[in-house]
Amino acid sequence: MKADPSAQRRLLDLAAVDAELSRADHRRRTLPEQAAVEEAERTLRAAQDAVVVAQTTLSDLDRDVAKLDREVEQVRTREVRDQQLLANGSVSAKQANDLQHELASLERRRAVLEEEQLEVMERQEAAGVDLKHETEAHAVAQTALADAVERRDGVLGDIGTVEVRRGEERTNLLKELPEDLVALYDKLRSRGAAGAGELIGNRCGACRLEMDRNELREIQAAAPDEVVRCENCGAIVVRTGK
């Protein structure tokens, strides 16, 4: 293949643009800020789960306290009724004796309930403290995620700016270059190698490897408009006289 030497030199500009675009793409795919966002998301999900657990625990204890309150109130109501029956003297001696036994039983029952009530209320208070702590941790996690997203988006914005600018440069360069030369260059790049590199001394600028004397002699002897390739990496070798 033949191409004007000036077009071959412009191919180096295209390679430089593509290298920067590749770096931008690599940076986008391996962004530390993205990893920070994902870690912040995991932390927030864990915080949300902890809040749900704390809320459920407190809700269960609230229900237990309410149930015990009702049971204690029922016992007290029964005690008041029995005491009133004894006080007004409207019952027989046997009924009075039964009421006395029932009052003693009710007192024991109330003592057990009130002790259980106190224990559950203490757990309820502790659960409230836990919920407050988990809620605060959740708020901190939300803020941390928002900060991480802002930093990530800022970096992505910078990368996007580079990609747009270099994309425009690439489009303009393609208009100036022969289609067959660009086609070869793109084919080489599609294989994962650099499409073109400058010959500097005896070294290929694409793969950075030194050429042997025979290869270097053949490249130097080729016509200026001849498109020559590196035997090591296959890239187009651009001769600039350096």
From TrEMBL:
Annotated CT398-like coiled coil hairpin domain residues: 14-191
Residue ranges of the TM segments: none
Gene3D superfamilies: 1.10.287.1490
InterPro entries: CT398_CC_hairpin (IPR056003), Oxidative_Scav/Glycosyltrans (IPR052376), Zf-RING_7 (IPR003743)
Domain C4-type zinc ribbon: 203-237
Keywords assigned: Coiled coil
Alphabetical list of PANTHER family matching this protein: PHOSPHOLIPASE C-BETA-2-RELATED, SCAVENGER RECEPTOR CLASS A MEMBER 3
Protein name: C4-type zinc ribbon domain-containing protein
